[in-house]
From TrEMBL, chain A:
Localization terms from the record: Nucleus
Protein family according to the UniProt entry: Belongs to the eukaryotic RPB7/RPC8 RNA polymerase subunit family.
Main location: nucleus
Biased segments, Acidic residues type: 219-250
Ranges where the RNA polymerase Rpb7-like N-terminal domain occurs: 8-63
Species for this entry: Dictyostelium firmibasis
Protein name: DNA-directed RNA polymerase III subunit RPC8
One of the Pfam families matching this protein, by short name: SHS2_Rpb7-N
Domain RNA polymerase III subunit Rpc25: 82-214
GO cellular component entries: RNA polymerase III complex
TrEMBL record, chain B:
GO cellular component, one term: RNA polymerase III complex
Name of the protein: DNA-directed RNA polymerase III subunit RPC9
Keywords: DNA-directed RNA polymerase, Nucleus, Transcription
Molecular function GO labels: nucleotide binding
InterPro entries to which the protein is assigned, alphabetical: HRDC-like_sf (IPR010997), RNA_pol_Rpb4/RPC9_core (IPR006590), Rpb4/RPC9 (IPR005574), Rpb4/RPC9_sf (IPR038324), RPC9 (IPR038846)
Alphabetized SMART domains for the sequence: RPOL4c (SM00657)
Gene Ontology annotations of biological process type: transcription initiation at RNA polymerase III promoter
Subcellular localization(s) per the UniProt record: Nucleus
Length: 250, 130
């Protein structure tokens, strides 16, 4: 779930901090990366260690020193097929959103729920039909899931701010058309804005789903076995009753 | 900013991350140490990582490697990581984590090793919500 990656980056040290170099480098890096996603690497969690620093350079017009730093950091980036635990945040007919407490962009397509699963319109929850029991995926319940896809979305440029107090009536037809085109363009841009890191997950294997289903597994199994045994007994009894009836018919 | 590519991506267990973050929190002693780190710590404390120690993790890794060598297969890095992160308490969880488990290694033995080395309380999980 966490990876250690090596990164090189430029850090500026202010003149007042020259006697306190290492601490400043650490602070600057943490300030820059905290709770941000590094593209194709993962969500920054913490600075692990500093491996090396390059020479410091002073550029004209700036009293600070600039230097390259090579460091390792801990990032959150699950690998494909990894099993994680989280809490259901929100359920809807289209998807279930799961949260880890520090990361919320985890989505489950209902196709990937255990088979057969159905949606309860009144409760607004999904449930798994298992031996004629309806096992609900409750909001706030702890679930276990498998990572299907890790998706990085590069940042896209934000639309330019539109001018205030636009008087559309005073425009001639050409600028009016241009204005409308730009509005549509901006709307399309905003639609594309996605979280930089999205996880798509699945729950189709045994052991996945609500954690509470599997915790007391040994007890459940015993109960299940007992139940099956009882059912079998009943079936035999039924057979016993049926048998004479058949004889009578004959 | 440049990501230095290596042949192998290094993976790190939940336990190590938790130790690192707790250590950071201790030395900085800042109240405002960002909300994000606190959330990560809070999440990790609901996982079995909160009950592990350096010795128990080392021992668990050693024992499982030995067990896998005895049964003539190799536990992959990712699988070992997950065994430590999830600390399975039932067979179905072991099967979930280890691919083709029935052909490669005895799930019951794995469970026993985990229980022995990580300790009873590391395996039993309480139903804390985040």
């Amino acid at each position: 779930m966490f990876h250690l990656i090596t990164i090189e980056d430029k850090v500026r040290i202010a003149p007042s901090q020259f006697n306190n170099e290492v601490q400043t480098i650490e602070d600057e890096i943490e300030k820059k990366y905290t709770s941000k996603v590094v593209l194709n690497a993962g969500l920054f969690v913490a600075l692990y260690d500093i491996l090396a620093t390059g020479d410091s350079y002073v550029h004209s017009g700036d009293g600070g020193a600039h230097l390259m730093v090579r460091f390792r950091m801990v990032v959150f980036k699950p690998f494909k097929g990894e099993v994680l635990e989280g809490v259901i945040n929100k359920s809807s007919r289209e998807s279930i959103q799961i949260s880890l407490g520090f990361f919320h962009e985890i989505y489950l397509n209902p196709i990937e729920l255990p088979n057969p699963s159905n949606y309860n319109q009144e409760e607004g929850l999904w449930y798994w039909e298992w031996n004629e029991n309806q096992l609900f995926f409750e909001d706030g319940g702890r679930v276990r899931f498998k990572i299907d896809q890790v998706e990085f979305n590069p940042e896209i440029s934000q639309p330019a701010p539109s001018p205030k107090n636009v008087n559309t009536e005073a425009m001639d037809s050409y600028s009016l058309r241009e204005y409308k085109e730009r509005q549509i363009e901006n709307e399309n841009l905003l639609k594309q804005v996605k979280s930089p890191l999205i996880l798509k997950v699945s729950m189709r294997e045994a052991g996945l789903g609500m954690v509470s289903w599997w915790i007391n597994q040994t007890d459940d199994q015993e109960e299940e076995d007992n139940q099956n045994a009882e059912e079998q007994d009943e079936e035999i009894d039924v057979d016993g009753e049926d048998a004479p009836a058949i004889e009578e018919y004959e | 900013m440049k990501i230095i590519k290596k042949d192998k991506e290094e993976i790190i267990t939940n336990f190590e991350v938790l130790q690192l973050l707790k250590h950071k929190r201790k030395i900085e002693e800042q109240v405002l140490l960002n909300e994000f780190v606190n959330n990560v710590i809070r999440y990790l404390e609901t996982t079995p990582a909160s009950k592990q120690t350096i010795d128990s993790v080392k021992e668990c890794k050693k024992n499982i490697t030995k067990l896998s060598n005895d049964s003539g297969c190799k536990i992959l890095k990712g699988e070992m990581l997950q065994l430590l992160n999830i600390a399975p308490s039932s067979e179905v969880e072991v099967h979930l984590v280890i691919e083709d488990c029935e052909d490669r290694i005895d799930a019951k033995e794995v469970l026993k090793e985990i229980k022995n080395s990580l300790g009873e309380e590391a395996v039993i999980r309480d139903e804390n919500t985040l």
